[in-house]
What we know:
Strand content: 25-35%
Signal peptide: 1-20
Order of helices and strands: HEEHHEEEEHHEEEH
Low-confidence stretches: 6-10
Keywords: Signal
Shape: globular
Oligomer: single chain
Protein name: RsiV family protein
Helix content: 25-40%
Number of helices: 6
Largest sheet: 6 strands, mixed
Mean pLDDT: 92
InterPro entries: DUF3298, PdaC/RsiV-like_sf
Organism: Bradyrhizobium barranii
Amino acid sequence: MIGLSVAVALSATCVISALAADPKPDAVIKTKSIDARIFLDDRIKADATLAADCLAEGRKWLDKNAAEAAASRKEDPQFFKEGGWDFERKYAIRSVVGDRYVSVLRNDYMDTHGAHPNSDVNTILWDKSEHKRISIRPFFTETADNGATMKAMVKAVIASLRVEKKKRDTSETATDEWFKSVEPSLLKIGAVTLAPSTEAGKSSGLTFHYPPYAVGPYAEGEYVAFVPWETLKTYLTAEGIRIFGGARPKGDAEEPQ
């Protein structure tokens, strides 16, 4: 009996500890139509301006989806008998380069009672000095649509995706048809971050993040393509030369991005 009591006590302690460890949402909407949450990681919260920017965007996302859920429930209430939609967005810092450029991953989870939940991934590049979002444009001498830089990027991205698909034994979908959405344009090549580096304060290159369906069937999940900075060395500006260097850390390719 004593052993059983100890086991029950330990089990209860574990449950309490697990509950205590659950992070609290930084914004939430909970109605009969939807349960939606926003989470900011601690490193984002440490930067008040960046946190405010992410939270403002996140709240708009909550409001938009809450309105759509309410409208859907009004039109088809039978689809909400077992509960409302479930949405979640998480903002997390991927890298900080030169103590200035912050790469943020934005991961979305969406369950609207369809065949399966969906997910999405996007990115933010934040300039701590200017307190605003920027693109990778300042790091390259030119980034015109269909220009030399963007064509070189697309070529390198597709080469990386082919390698990733080979690793997953999904080479049959490494086709032009699946890669056609990766276009030589800053707005169409994919969501980008500055990859961390073995050299402190530097970036080892660019990582491009693709949600399910973007470059492969849903079952294949997300893909991350890595382009080493040396591949694009010819196209770098002075600022690009300053921030890029080193190699991709050994564990970065295996870790969730």
